[in-house]
Amino acid sequence: MQPQTKQQIRTAVRASRAARSAAARQQTRDQLTAQLISLSVQRNAKAVSCYFPTPNEPDTTGFTAWARTNSIDVFLPVARKDRNLDWARLSEAGTAGGLHGIQEPVGERLPAQILGQLDLLIIPACAVDEQGMRLGWGLGYYDRLLATLDTLPPVFAVIHDDELLAHIPADTHDIPVHGVITPTQTRLFSNYAG
Ligand SMILES: Nc1nc2c(c(=O)[nH]1)N(C=O)[C@@H](CNc1ccc(C(=O)N[C@@H](CCC(=O)O)C(=O)O)cc1)CN2
Ligand SMILES: Nc1ncnc2c1ncn2[C@@H]1O[C@H](COP(=O)(O)OP(=O)(O)OP(=O)(O)O)[C@@H](O)[C@H]1O
């Protein structure tokens, strides 16, 4: 995949994600579950944020199920009309479709600042480059979130292997992630010493 403009990258990734077979999706889910469990065990994480995947996104539900079974608190985003994110803890109360049709936990809405107290932030992305620059879907939710947190725990974006690109054009508001998780690797970027 030759990186060009942000919009061209988004179009290419959207198409390649849509073309994945059910078997490939299942394999991605299993491999990501293993990568995410290793990372949280290694970091002794007791509370993390994650995302509830759309049908085409890298599937994190194996990991969130494991986290719940192991008494790790999982916080998921709740999209607001003003394009900021609230957060809610995954619980027995279950989930319901939110603003973009994505499942969100039912229950108390918490402000973004609670993320500063978590051990690990696992976030969605369209693509990430070798410098840790992250591209989302263009609504700015996560750029705005990362910019507002006073304390930033380690932030890892989850993507497929072919979405780790050599270079993504960056705007001044773009905030790099500390690491990236793909089905085959968990990589820490050099911008982060932790
Ligand atoms: N799973 C998930 N939850 C999330 C996000 C996300 O990217 N993924 N968000 C991140 O901001 C926020 C909601 N904003 C969103 C913005 C765009 C799209 C969207 O439709 N994206 C792609 C399709 C994704 C796919 O199915 O592969 C698109 O633009 O076509 C979804 C959510 C909060 N929750
Ligand atoms: N810190 C910020 N404060 C206000 N607006 C912002 C901030 N960061 C990004 N934006 C706005 O959000 C919009 C989307 O930015 P960009 O294309 O970089 O998003 P993205 O990285 O694809 O999205 P996301 O953060 O949701 O994953 C832009 O119009 C940008 O001006």
Automatic annotation (TrEMBL):
Record field: catalytic activity: (6S)-5-formyl-5,6,7,8-tetrahydrofolate + ATP = (6R)-5,10-methenyltetrahydrofolate + ADP + phosphate
Answer yes or no on keyword Cell membrane. Answer: no
- EC no. given is 6.3.3.2
Q: Kindly give the Gene3D superfamilies that the UniProt entry links to this protein.
A: NagB/RpiA/CoA transferase-like (3.40.50.10420)
Cofactor(s) recorded for this entry are: Mg(2+)
Name the source's superkingdom.
Answer: Bacteria
Keywords carried by this UniProt record: ATP-binding, Ligase, Magnesium, Metal-binding, Nucleotide-binding
Q: Which NCBIfam families match?
A: MTHFS_bact (TIGR02727)
Family classification: Belongs to the 5-formyltetrahydrofolate cyclo-ligase family.
Protein's name in the database: 5-formyltetrahydrofolate cyclo-ligase
